[in-house]
Write a structure and sequence with these properties.
By secondary structure, this protein is of the alpha/beta class. It contains eleven helices and 16 strands. The protein has helices at about 25-35, 75-85, 95-100, 105-110, 120-130, 180-185, 220-225, 245-270, 345-355, 355-370, 380-390, and strands at about 10-20, 40-45, 60, 115, 135, 140-150, 150-160, 160-175, 190, 200-205, 210-215, 275, 285-290, 305-310, 320-325, 335-340. Bound molecules: flavin-adenine dinucleotide. Flavin-adenine dinucleotide (FAD) binds near residues 61, 142 and 280.
Amino acid sequence: MNELKESILTPITDECDCLIAGGGFAGISASLAAARAGAKVTLIEREYILGGLGTAGIVTIYLPLCDGKGRQVSFGIAEELLMLSIKHGAEDKYPDAWLDGDDKDLRKKQRFEVQYNPHMFALEAEKLLIENGVKILYGTSVCQASVSDRKINHIIIENKSGRSAIKVNRSVVDCTGDADVVKLSGAKTKTFNMGNSLAAWYYSLSVSRGLTLHPIGASDSAEDIATGKSTTALVERRFTGICGEELSEMTQISHSFILRDILDKKKRDVSHVPVTIPTIPQIRMTRRIDGVYTMNDKEMHKNFSDSVGMFSDWRKRGPVYELPFSTLYGNDIDNLICAGRCISVTDDMWDISRVIPVCAVSGEAAGTAAALTDNFSEIDMELLQDTLVKNGVILHEENL
Ligand SMILES: Cc1cc2nc3c(=O)[nH]c(=O)nc-3n(C[C@H](O)[C@H](O)[C@H](O)COP(=O)(O)OP(=O)(O)OC[C@H]3O[C@@H](n4cnc5c(N)ncnc54)[C@H](O)[C@@H]3O)c2cc1C
C-alpha cells in the first residue's frame, strides 16, 4: 500500500483534565461523574447528538436496573439517566411498581426498565452535561493518540476546523464503543470474531398505532452462534463493525430492510410513515480493551474486592454481577480507562455487559476514577469506592 507522510504540524487548541471520547450512555455517564468529581472535562463526539446507539442508533429500551426477582442492583448515574430518559413520559414499559409504588410482589414480575423517547433524552442529557460544566465538542472524531512514558499526553482530533490536538493533563476515558482510543494508543485489544447480525430498527408514525418502534433484527448470543442455533439473523452474513467499508455496506443492507418494511406496512395502512431511521450503524460487539482482568458470564454472585457497581442479566431473572474495576483498564497505558461496550469481558459476557444500564454503571466508575488519578493501576481504591458509595452506588450484593 502507498503511504502518505504528513508534514503539517498539529496545533494544540485546547487542554483538559479528563478527555472523554464518545458521548453514548457510557460517555454521558463518565463525563458527568468526572465533572462532578471536580475535573475539567472535554467530551469528544463524532455525531451532533448525545446518546450513541441509544439515540442516533434508535435503540431506546433502557434495560433493567433490577435482578428480575424484585431487587434493584444498579444505582447512581445508571438510575439517574433512566429517570432522565422518561422525565417527560415513557414511550412504553413504564415500571409503575418501581416508580409509583412499593408492591414487592409486582416488582418480582415487572422489571425496572423503560422505553424512552430518544430525542427528549438527547436534549435533556446535553442540558445536564452543560449544567455540570462539561465542554462538548460535536462533529469531532478522535483520530490519533500521542503517547510518551506509558501515558497519553495529547489526543488528536479532526473536525470542520481540520486537525488539532487537545492536551490531556490527567486521563482519557474511551467510550467510543469500539475501543478506538485503546487501538490508537497501541494498547492491546480483542475483537468479537463471531461478528454481529444485521439490525434495522426504526420508528414509524401511523393513525392506528401512533409512534411505534420497529426492532427488526434480534440479537443472538455467542452460544447460539457457536452452536449454530441462531434463528433470528436477517441475513447470513455477519459484521465486525471495525472496517469502514464493511460498515457502509452494512448500513445500506440495513436501509434496504427498513425500506422494505415501510413499503410492506404502507400497503396495509397508507398512513404508515417512518419518522426516525438510524443515523449510525446498529452494531453490538466489535472491539474491546484487553484488560487487567477479563470477566466471564459464570461470575455471577461473586464478590470482587475492587467492585465499582453491579448489574443484572437482561435476558434472564436472578443473576447479579459485581463489576471489577480491573475490567476497565489494561496493562499498557497508565492513564487510559474504558467504559461501555468496550470493557474487558469474554464473548459470552459481552452480550450481557454491552447494554445501556451496564454502560452507565461502568461510565460512572471510569469517570470518577479518571478525575482521581493519571495512573489507574495505582488508584486509591478506598477513595474511589467511597466516592461512588457517597454518590449512591451500591458495590456489593451482600449490601443490597
Ligand atoms: C440493534 C441493537 C439493539 C440493542 N438493543 C438494546 C436494548 O434494547 N437495550 C439496551 O439497553 N441496549 C441495547 N443495545 C445495546 C446498547 O444500545 C449499546 O451497547 C449501548 O448503548 C452502548 O453504549 P456506549 O456508550 O458504550 O456506546 P455507543 O452507544 O456506541 O456510543 C459511542 C459513541 O462514541 C462516538 N464515537 C465512536 N467513535 C468515535 C471516535 N473515534 N471519535 C469520537 N466519537 C466517537 C459515537 O458516535 C457514539 O456516540 C442494542 C444494540 C444494538 C446495536
